Amino acid sequence: MLPDQVKRLLIGHTNEGLRAGWFLDSVQIWVPVHGLQYMFPSHRWLCKDEADGKVEVEIYPSETLEIEKLINYEVTVVTGDVWAGGTNANVFLQIYGEEGKTELIRLKSRSNNFERGTTEIFRIEALDIGRVYKIRIGHDGSGIGAGWFLEKVDVKRLVMAMVKPEKKEEDKKDKKKKKKKKEEEEESPGELKEVVRTFSFPCGRWLARSEEDGEILVELCAEDYDDLEDNSYEVHVFTGTVLGAGTDAGVYINIYGEMGDTGERKLRKSNHLNKFERGQEDLFTITGMDLGQLKKLRIRHDNKQANAAWYLDRVEIFDTKDETMYFFPCQRWLAVDEDDGQLCRELVPVDEAFMKRDEDEEEESSPAQLGLEQKAMSTTFTMRVKTGEKKNAGTDANVFAILYGTKDDTGIINLKASKNYKNKFELGLIDEFTIEAVDIGKLKRICIGHDNAGASPGWFLDWVEIDAPSLGQLLRFPCGRWLDKGEDDGVIVRDLYPNELQTHLYTPFVPYEIKIFTSDVFAAGTDADVFIILYGQNGVCSSQKSLCVNKRERKMYFERGAEDMFIVELEDIGDIIEKIRIGHDNRGVNPGWHLDRVEIRRLLRKGKGSETAIFPCEGWLARSEEDGETIRELVPSDIIVQKLSRDGTLKVIETEVDDALEIHTYTVTVTTGDVYGAGTDANVFITLYGDMGDTGERKLSKSENTNKFERGSVDTFTLEAVDLGQVFKIRIRHDNSMLSADWYLDQVEVVDQDTEEVFLFLCERWLSRKREDKRIDRVFYVKGYEGERETAFCPIKKVTNFDSNMNKKNKKRHSEEDDEEEEGSLIPYHFSVTTGSDRDAGTSSRVYVIIIGKKNKRTDRLWLDLDGKNAFLPGSLDYFTCYGSDVGEIKTVQLGHDGATPESCWLVDELSVEVPTKAVRYVFRCKCWLAKDRGDGLTARFLIVQDAETVNISQKVIYEVTVITGDVQHAGTDTQIYMTVFGVHGTSEEMLLPKLEDRFERGQKDTFNLEIEDIAPLRKMRVRIDGSGSRPDWFLDKVELHNLLTNEVALFTYEEWLSRSYGPRRTLICEMSAVIDDEEMVELTIYTVSVKTSDATAAGTDANVWMIIFGENGDTGTLALKESSNTNKFERKQTDTFRFPDILSLGELSKVRIWHDNSGLAPGWHLEYVEVHDDIMEKKFRFQCDRWLAKKEDDGQIMRELACANNDAVDFDEKTKYEILVKTADTDDAETKENAWIVLEGKKGRSKEFVMENSTKKKRFLRGSSDRFEFSSKELGDIASICLGHIPKDGKKVKVEASWFVEEVVVTEKELGNKYIFRCDAAIPLSSKRDEFQTFECSKFIESFTSKAQSLVPVKYEAIVITGDEKGSGTDANVFITIFGSNGDSGRRQLCQKFRNLFERGQTNRFILELLDMGDLLRVCVEHDNSGLSPGWLLSRIEITNTANGVTTIFICGKWLDKNKADGRIKRVIYPKY
Description:
By secondary structure, the chain is mainly beta.
């Protein structure tokens, strides 16, 4: 008895005999009765002399897959006791039930079965088909003495049924008792139990070619099933009259009705000796159980004999019991090299009226084709079969497949006609086949195999992909195994199941019947590739579809005077076809084509019938005729509707189309820019898009200039197209042909000649493989376009429906609502993935991550799709940004990939997940395989956050950023744009604004998301460009930042050039003040800087000097001290004055950074002080130095930071004031009428108890309110925690339990303005005792500017740099470091020492840096300049010690800074490990 679920498996051997050692790779267990398949990976020795010496092992399943659930049947077959009654043939059986049918089952056992007078019992597993009503049993007539006398068959199965309890015999003593018993029995109908149910099928007849009716197959009805009767069907098969229509192959048929099917029967006995000849009608009789109304039939041939190709016109079936005739039209080939190459067709019955229509029209034309109706009722599967890329992977055997749906299967399909390769199933090829089936339900599995014929039959099958456009699904069935008698497990037929992760769903397609009439004029035909696109209303269109699949078809169709019909599945474009575009690729001999008309028929959505639209053309599609166009747009002239009326006749209604769209003429004027090398000789193509459709791609060929697209020239072209409405975008490209293909496009003007509307497209971009982003295909939008651009990517939008009244009354439910609310909020997740360095560590599978929070709240599957690469390569480090829902606190991360074959193995070294909005990064050191055949066989893993290394990173807020580029000629740019934002609480890092194809173009408004440090309220912004790129100049109009957390909007206006060659300023950098609620945050001022050089020997310098001033509002950026009042600057004892006008005031100043470049003869400089005068504040700030900035003097530093001497320390001898802001929660029972008290605990001491009084006049602590209190106290230093108590007003005892719910307490020290925030979210119980209180730690500390400025004292920092110990770890490049602390950054400092070879493999280097106190160290940025012979560097870690307080911060890196390794970066930001 097998348990419900297999948890583990013990496997071993007895270790007897020679070479008993065994390497066990894996075990697979199928349990069809449970519908499960288990995979147990082992990958280990079971051997006394190998590994751990064990010969038995317990293994656990790596995955449990759901397979089809089967149940057990017992089949008893009784052979008759008559002479020669037994058989040696292969016997098969199929069982039919009310819920379906089993597959064809071969009855074989080890003994000599089916001998005269024997009873055989077979145990089989098959689908649960409900109540059994018939079976089909037969044999294949093989062997000697194949004739068989079958007596009867019994089928047994377990069913659940109500079983009455057995009656116990009792004395008839008491009638009353009996009466009671009876009542009880009536009440209890029995209990549910499993019982065996037997279905008997008496037969008592011969199954022999030489006995009775010669049949070797029989259908039997269950004894107790009265609804079924025997029936015989007359099958009339009509072979077509086409040349070569007849066949000598064996033909098989299966008829399906409401009550099952007949099974596949070979059509043997016809009324003609030579069956299936051209134009012949063959009659066959098939007997079996009555099928009820017929639904479909499947007909196929076995492709044997010389002339196997067969053109089947139709099949008619006469039901002798009901006396009804069914018509199954086919009118198609069943041939490998005709039509779509299928040897099997599924046909559906059509109404007699449709067939009658054919006969009426017989005189004039060929019979009307019913392909469309057939197509609509059938599903077309495109099957792609990928042969693996292993040695000898290809096969010469005959491959077959069976598709199993939930309702039925397709039967055996021989994969003979590959659409794309003559030699099928060769190494690495993907072969495509078409399979049509009627109503088989949803695909659940496929069976694929081969017959092991041919010279090298072994086959390595990688995967099978099945696309069903009419169902809108693409399924991938992974295999990745051999189908070879001599490889793997020796199986040559495999069942494959779809891989969920690789399933692709889309909008289902619908069938269209397209008839093409080629004109009857000289040379009208073509062998070119003809394509078509259909357009519905509002510009909805289908994809471009080629009507011919291969060269053979192109030669066959579109001949002079021909009428060709194609049935294609395309996107549903609605009920009205507004226009079609038809064209060809102008290839082949004489590709010119004269098209008469196109007729497109599609089925009506409701009712039976169809609608045909006629599109007249009557013109050439030829380069050498008329206007030389090979593409035409056609509009409908007439529509014919055919409806089946209630009385069974066909109604035809013909209407003319009055409101068809008109053909418009568009003039396209193309201006090439007037810059060097702007012209192109390549072929240029354009597509115009309007709100009513597009023109398709047109070549711009005939201009009035003979040499088109030359520098500064204007070319005009004319296009004819069906009315596009408002033209809003164009797509323009060139084919990069000829020598000078690069093209600078200035603008395109499109004029609709009919309406005289002008549409202007400002381009001003290169289409070049060498310049800008190297694209030769661009999309431009019409000037002033307001809609959403395709390339616009701003996943997190501002919320407009912000409900201000967030249901105040009922706040009790707030926790549940919060959960729901958060569901919608998207946040960015940043991932970095390091692939192991083993040779086969990489994978080309798609990788995904799922982030899981509390209560199993999870993001969708976030796919990590590689940009520009097609695989995760060994040793690579790849970065991704995904947007997923906010799951709150992260608990686990699932990492996996969609590869399901053993080949798709992947070794993950490390995964890091960064969540900037939560200020955290998790680093998972995985070092594990995600592979079916490695390690524990898992392709997905759950990584627990507790096992990860947690790194605190800077907290970020998501902003919606809108950048507006000016509408000035050449305003757009492809340069690198950097933005820095300054706020009250610090400065953001410098952020690169991504270009993403078409951002920052002339007159354009670009909106995207940026993650910016939480420094609001904002003060100013600095934008810098680096002058790189093909168009380095940019006209910046304005920038808007919208804080999505607080909804605050800041506007920054510039309206000027950032350029070295345009505009008055000739600068690449600009600063803009923030305007919030129409108020300017920072004013412009003039800074006058006085620099005093000391009175010491050789104090002056000839070097170039720069400085940066820091203050409340950030910094000034780098200021060059160039133009002084003195001609010879920085001489001994001299004061130099520099004036900087129009600079944004920094408010109070804190420090300056000053340095020189060590150039000139005597660069050493002794600086006495720097003085800065702010014009607006009318205030002078002094910065004392009295130190050398020289390589050869003092400590050798040429960069110094000077603290502001004005900021004298505040004297804290006397008391200071504390302001306390208490916020009561906004819930029902949060408020209190009693008093509260607070104690502040600081680093320097503890305050006394402050009572916060509540009076009747001034009520405090009301629901949702904030109350302010002020207390004096001695200075306590930084406040670490507070104690909160809740006491009765009058000191009475507490009678009723009550509490006060505090949300938050903010303590502000008034002298310096430091803020301490305590998140409480707790209920404080009312108590008269003073020792009952609650303590809260400080959750956020906001240091004021004054406090920061005071703490700026010079401190020596010791930096220890440790280089990794691997081959090639050391570097010869120059290394630079920037340290970031809570008080700002250190500036970029070079790490160098005289006469020392630094940063060698395994080496530790020590450096001393003198900086102003940095506060807590937050991160360091390390980089090198990639100079020297071997610049690649493996940095192990950096340790920085503040020598003043002895605190050491460790920054672990462990990554390469090397252009040729991992991610190719030579600059890294490292966060500390605490």
